[in-house]
UniProtKB/TrEMBL annotation:
A GO MF term: aspartic-type endopeptidase activity
Protein name (record): Probable aspartic-type endopeptidase OPSB
Organism: Trichoderma asperellum (strain ATCC 204424 / CBS 433.97 / NBRC 101777)
BP term (GO), one: fungal-type cell wall organization
Record field: compositional bias (Low complexity): 426-446
Stored InterPro entries: Aspartic_peptidase_A1 (IPR001461), Aspartic_peptidase_AS (IPR001969), PEPTIDASE_A1 (IPR033121), Peptidase_aspartic_dom_sf (IPR021109), SAP-like (IPR033876)
Entry-linked PANTHER family: ASPARTIC PROTEINASE, ASPARTYL PROTEASE-RELATED
């Protein structure tokens, strides 16, 4: 997510917009069927690959003439497409700490259709303080089997991030507003202008933590990728603003459910506005709410990592967190424990708790973390459990529980520009006045989360010393610095 003056500066968001791993599966669906679909001016489909440890979702695109392959991270929390310049230090100064631009970079000298349209005008900083700066340029852009001619993009000449991003948010969140005070038609808008899709909207299906691919579908929905019904809720504007800048929605309530009970998490943070942000790996809730979630599952905050951690075995527990949006009758998404324990490193053995109640067990990062203030972020640990439609014309989100690993497809395009989201009904009684503070309902679910018939019972986290994690050197040099936001340069 892009930092804005409204965003709390400097909160340490683990792994937002970072991707420094060597191993990744990329898939590009590029067959005749897809081309047919897009020529009928209805939908454009991109296949996302799931980089589990870094948590990013990546798309293969091609830029320029002749086309240069680049892999970009999809980000609903920002609005610019940008590519690292081949000449940028982060790409050229390869060392043990910096693997270089392994996801590809762009050499503008080698593109005959490259036009520089804004020297020095591209300057973006994300909420984790990573940045990229350079020029705006226009060139051909190929995605999901279609070509967009003349897309405006950023060229990262000076960047702390080695991979580019594909920001698909509102034009009113473009980085150009900070430099030239103007906006330009970004990718979703241009796809519609060039009649490749009917309206400025897309659906995102990230799929399971263990699955390697999901998909973004511009201009339509896929009725086979969710369970039950799609429910529409309003996107909220920032107070005192008359434009939409981000996918902010009212998070009405979060509940924890295990075999021993269901609890509503309490908070004094007032009405919660949360941003749906695919560029953020984890989910960030207010301090009090996050701490209650940690108590439920027996998570402990680890100072060294700056993260709440859990024994990895928690993924086998039968329980979930439910997120309810836009009022008591709004849509509810359940996120199972299997989606909420993430490996700390790829490759090499996981670190283990060296003492405390979970001594000897493998350490995972917990999918729900704390942050000091708004924006609260619903990142990939939440988004994987939902099928989400983003309608940037009617300023609505439609959401439904995901259909994990669905292999069927039934694409329905938006009928026209401004048409409503197909097959979706509005949540009743939406308001922006949820409980100003919810008192919560105790910890009746905790014992169910923390006992496992198939494994040694996990002792309650309320007693005993905080976890101490060993094994920091394992695979830490490269990955660790990206995961925990320590800079590369
Ligand atoms: C670009 O991607 C295509 C298809 O994925 C592949 O055939 C081609 O070899 C790639 N080119 C480069 C320079 O990596
Ligand atoms: C691309 O944009 C530039 C600058 O806006 C314009 O001069 C040029 O005609 C455009 N080219 C095409 C093919 O649309
Ligand atoms: C989805 O597929 C992955 C990979 O095959 C598998 O590990 C996972 O358990 C599946 N998820 C569900 C919910 O069936
Ligand atoms: C989500 O969990 C609640 C209990 O917390 C349950 O009543 C509801 O049926 C679940 N929804 C789905 C779609 O599984
Ligand atoms: C998260 O909570 C821990 C433990 O209470 C605290 O030390 C840390 O500063 C908090 N992080 C943020 C970003 O508020
Ligand atoms: C909620 O919405 C339903 C259906 O739109 C309506 O019948 C009901 O009166 C509403 N309830 C409240 C408390 O507003």
């Amino acid at each position: 997510m892009k930092a804005s003056p409204l965003a709390t500066a400097g909160i340490a968001l683990a792994s937002a917009a970072q991707a420094q791993v060597v191993q990744f599966d990329i898939e590009k669906r590029d067959g005749p069927l897809l081309r047919d679909l897009s020529r009928r001016a209805t939908t454009v489909n991109g296949v996302l690959s799931n980089q589990q440890v870094q948590g990013g979702y990546f798309l293969n695109v091609e830029v320029g003439t002749p086309p240069q392959n680049i892999t970009l991270q999809l980000d609903t929390g920002s609005s610019d497409v940008w590519v690292p310049a081949s000449s940028a230090a982060i790409c050229t100064e390869v060392s043990q700490r910096n693997p270089g631009c392994t996801f590809g970079s762009f050499n503008s000298d080698k593109s005959s259709t490259f036009v520089d349209v804004g020297q020095g005008d591209f300057d973006i900083t994300y909420v984790d303080n990573t940045f990229s700066k350079g020029d705006y340029f226009q060139d051909d852009f190929h995605i999901g089997g279609v070509t967009v001619s003349n897309l405006t993009m950023g060229l990262g000449l000076d960047s702390s991030i080695a991979n580019g991003l594909i920001g698909v948010g509102y034009v009113n969140d473009e980085a150009s507003l900070g430099t030239t005070r103007s906006t330009y038609p970004n990718l979703p808008v241009v796809l519609q202008k060039e009649k490749l899709i009917n309206t400025v909207a897309y659906s995102l299906w990230l799929n399971d933590l263990d699955a390697s691919t999901g998909s973004i579908l511009f201009g339509g929905i896929d009725t086979e990728k969710y369970e039950g019904d799609l429910t529409k809720i309003n996107i909220l504007r920032a107070d005192n603003s008359n434009v939409f800048t981000e996918f902010a929605v009212e998070l009405y309530e979060v509940q924890a459910t295990s075999p021993s009970g269901t609890d509503t998490l309490s908070t004094n943070a007032g009405t919660l506005v949360a941003v749906l942000d695919s560029g953020t790996t984890l989910t960030y809730l207010p301090q009090d709410m996050a701490e209650e979630a940690w108590k439920e599952v027996g998570a402990s905050y680890n100072e060294e990592f700056g993260l709440a951690v859990v024994p990895c075995s928690i993924r086998n527990i039968n329980g979930h967190f439910s997120f309810t949006f836009a009022g008591p009758q709004g849509p509810k998404i359940n996120v199972s424990m299997a989606e909420l324990a993430l490996d700390l490193f790829s490759g090499g053995p996981a670190p283990k708790f060296s003492s405390g109640p979970n001594q000897g067990q493998s350490v995972c990062e917990f999918g729900i973390q704390n942050t000091t203030g708004a924006p609260y972020l619903l990142g990939d640990t939440f988004l994987r459990s939902a099928f989400v439609v983003y309608d940037l014309v009617n300023n609505e989100i439609a959401i439904a529980p995901t259909s994990f690993n669905s292999t069927k497809t039934n694409v329905v395009a938006f009928a026209s520009s401004g048409a409503p989201i197909p097959s979706a009904t509005s949540a009743p009684n939406q308001s922006k006045s949820g409980p100003s503070s919810s008192t919560g309902s105790g910890l009746s679910a905790a014992s169910g989360f923390q006992s496992n018939d198939n494994a040694a019972p996990l002792t309650s986290a309320f007693s005993g010393p905080g976890a101490i994690v060993v094994g920091l050197t394992l695979g830490y040099t490269l990955l660790g610095s990206a995961i925990f936001g320590i800079g590369w340069l």
